Structures are given as structure tokens and as C-alpha cells.
Amino acid sequence: MEKHEKINYIELPARDINSAKAFFEKAFGWDFVDYGPEYTCFTNGGIDGGFFKSDLKASTENGSALVVLYSKDLEDTKSKIEPAGGKIVKEIFSFPGGRRFHFSDPNGNEYAIWSE
Question: Residues 38-60: what's their mean pLDDT?
């Protein structure tokens, strides 16, 4: 697969890096490697990335790009969000091409999950 000039890595803010790690491990099975107290790298998330220590949050409300995950079973994936410590911020809705919902992680970062 050609990687030249393609998105390779994504970094997101987190007030509490440990809560981000706990949420994504529990909800989606992501793996983490810590690089000091202010940064952790995630793998097994579809694209590798990291969380950096910051009081800011990524949300569409403040103009941030939206990270969108895919699910084969939208309702099943949605059922994992709140028990893992996240919050549903937009219930399931239809859009051209499928359905999706939005959630926030424990640090307030907004994400979406879609399915056909």
C-alpha cells in the first residue's frame, strides 16, 4: 500500500491521559505505549496515533476535525461507550451512505462511529 503523502498518524489532546487509555482499551481494545507522563501512543485503532497532555478538547463545536470510526454493528458498538466512561453526544441518525452516532471520550474529545 502506498504511504507517501497519506495520513499516517493522528494526535489528540487529553487532560487526563490515563482516562483516555482506560476508555479506548475497554471500549475498543486499543493498545498503548507511554512516552513519559505527557504522551502516549495508541495502536490497533485503525490508524496509529497518540494523546498529548492538554487542557483543550477536539470537537466539531470548536471547529476540530472529526475522527470517525467504522462499526459492523452500530448498536453493539454504541452499547460499549457509556460503560467504558464515554458519553453519547448525538444519537444514531441516518446520512447519505449509512448511519452514525457521535460520542465523547472522558476528556471531552468528540468522535463518530458509522455503519452502512
Answer: 96
Amino acid at 48: D
Please state, in angstroms and as integers, the Cα–Cα distance from residue 105 to each residue in 7, 59, 97, 112, following that order. 22, 11, 25, 11
Alpha-carbon distance 39 to 53, whole Å? 6
3-state secondary structure the chain: CCCCCCCCCEEEEECCHHHHHHHHHHHHCCEEEECCCCEEEEECCCCCEEEEECCCCCCHHHCCCCEEEECCCHHHHHHHHCCCCCEEEEEEEEECCEEEEEEECCCCCEEEEEEC
Say how many C-beta atoms besides its own lie within 10 A of residue 6's C-beta: 8
- pTM score > 0.70 for this model? yes
| Nine cell digits for residue 12 | 489528540
pLDDT at position 85 over 90: yes
Cα separations in angstroms, 97 against 22, 93, 94, 114, 115: 32, 11, 8, 9, 8
